[in-house]
Amino acid sequence: MPSHVRALPPASPGITGLWRTTRPRDFFRQAHRLVPWFALSAAILALAALALGLGIAAPAVDQGDAFRIVFLHVPAAWMSLAIFVAMALLSLPTLTHRQRLSPILASALAPTGALFAFLALWTGALWGRPTWGSWWVWDARLSSELLLFLFYLAIVGLQMAIEDPRRADRASAVLTLIGVVNVPVVYFSVQWWSTLHQGTGIALNVPEAGVAVSTLGTSLMALAFAAYTVAAAMARAENTILERERRSNWVNDLRNANALG
Amino acid sequence: MHWDSWQAFWEMGGHGLYVWGAYAVTLAVIVTEVAILLVKRKSILEHLGRLTRLHRRQDAAQRK
Predict the structure, then answer these.
(1) Taking Cα atoms as reference points, which of A31, A257, A240, A255 lies closest to residue B45?
(2) Is the Cβ pair B14, A54 closer than 8 Å?
């Protein structure tokens, strides 16, 4: 063999290979370091969004101050969809490669996804009552978002009901892949059917000068919710990893070094 | 700043209950989730602490 072939660096495992070999303990080390920073970013972003949404923005022409609910409602609804898509993507390596970390992350995301789906429905009802004159209508957008919330509850319930973690992981992954079909239905429902709910995007019937404030406020709140989701899901995944690997040496060593507090 | 007075801020143009109901419940569910995560972490660490002490006692007993 010519010498220059041996001199080549070892082949990179690539993203797929890297992902396949990622161990929960490696993730734990990174998450433990990153959670406080994501939590801090979420708090700062949320304060900036609140200042815009509650303090600076002018009320919308047709909705009055009920419009300020939109600064929570739209980001919460976005997160409820984005988290489900992330869980569906994580379900694939769980089923095809029995990846150990992906089901831990997927189940760590589920309760936070349920939280945002609930908030989207709750803030929507509180916005709908003064604006439409109704807390709830069975239109396509509201009904499919309710179904999304129920899928989240079913996935969380499945995790708690099945004792064996491997079986629970696979069952949740299958249910997530069924439920993800509903995500585009939620998103496009306002185009596919005639709904009372207005079209995709941020409702912007505000005075001309207010459009920038509304867009910025909603975007900042969406970033705050996203940072919060990462922090909460990482913290929950840390808990799961500690529980599943409590008998392993690395957990023992961290515990003895008081590095978990 | 849009507001002239604190009173106007709390009243939200007559929509106070709806606006504050949305913001208060959002804050409440997030605080609840964080509290659940912290309590869970604490109980896991206590459990790990008991395991460690148990192992230490077993090691000491074996050495005797």
Answers:
(1) A255
(2) no
